[in-house]
Amino acid sequence: MTNQTIKQPNHLSAQSGFTLIELMTVVMIIGVFAAIAVPSYRQFIVRNAESETQAKMQQMAIELRKWRASALSYRNFHPSSCSTGTKTNCYDAHNTNIYIPLGSTAQTYRYRIVLTDYTTPSQSLVPTTDANNPTASNVAIGRDWMMVAEPNPNSSSMTTASVIYFDSRDVRCKAIKSTLTIAQAQTDKNCSSSSNAQTW
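Structure (tokenized):
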């Protein structure tokens, strides 16, 4: 008799792979993480966009005050990101809209800042002149200013973002867009139309 080991088939050897319960547990854990992460990421996008817009508004307020110090009025003001007469990705054709972030367009912006005359919000700080009498354009334009920033209504990530208000009298407030419009903020010259208004 030879000294050979006879190998018996091992029916109890470990099987590779995952069981259905293990797979379902992993999927459930990933789902929980996604449910927490997606809203947090959206809130981060909104907070970042609001902070960037507020910083731009404060920067323009400084530029406006410097402009007034030399011109004695806010009339004909252009932000530093715009050279006079160049409105691409900055001012629109009516000299009122500034798109945030810098370089965005009327389709791709996160926030749109509307800069207008304080007393006459339908007028920009760059008034049009009467062709028959160039000195007859509204001389009151440019004594004070107001800015109202609104989030892009076509951006799904900006649905909970705020409308932000700032003026030359240093009134600053913001409120969720669903409770405040640009027109209301311009009329009230604050955020009092909204129940959730807060200062910034």
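Residues 83-89 have pLDDT under 50 and may be disordered. The radius of gyration is 29 Å.
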